[in-house]
Automatic annotation (TrEMBL):
It catalyses: a D-galactosylceramide + H2O = an N-acyl-sphingoid base + D-galactose; beta-D-galactosyl-(1<->1)-sphing-4-enine + H2O = sphing-4-enine + D-galactose. The keyword Nucleotidyltransferase does not apply. Belongs to the glycosyl hydrolase 59 family. Its EC number is 3.2.1.46. This is Galactocerebrosidase. One of its GO terms (molecular function) is galactosylceramidase activity. InterPro entries: Aldolase_TIM, GH, GH59_cat, Glyco_hydro_59. Pfam families: Glyco_hydro_59. Residues 1-24 form the signal peptide.
Amino acid sequence: MGGPLSPVSLSAVLLLLSGGSCSGKDYVLTDVGGLGRVFDGIGGLSGGGATSRLLVNYEEPYRSQILDFLFKPNFGASLHILKVEIGGDAQTTDGTEPSHMHYENDENYFRGYEWWLMKEAKKRNPNITLIGLPWAFPGWVGRGKNWPYDHPDVTVSYVVNWILGAKQYHDLDIQYVGVCTDPRLTRVHLRF
């Protein structure tokens, strides 16, 4: 009986010692200092070569039911945002997303499944926000090095081509593009 108090017992003792109530100031919401941040919505991520890769091969009606649960407004998850990986022909997390440009003069905007997923999301929610994010780049973007940011003109062109291809070939408007997932990226690299 003389052992240490459990966390629950200790919490009860502290609550009793404090008078059993929480004393504090009221928290007042105000917009005096400005409106602050805006809630853009709840989003999902497709990338890393695995998160939604198998979905395209699910049998109907299961595939459509899952897509409805994910993207249909006021139903299921009702996602407002979809961020997809801009494929780079490289092992990222769990797999490889194909690039729209295997090499500099090669453009094919039908490789991979992310185009399909974005179109399915838009079909269910025309107002969904689409975001692209490169996890990796083909070797030619870095001119033979595993660091594409030493050649910002090439890197920017590669990403812009993906955005333009999304519109031209799939009628998809990409609202935002992330820079990369590499923590070594600095402000110097963002000047492009």
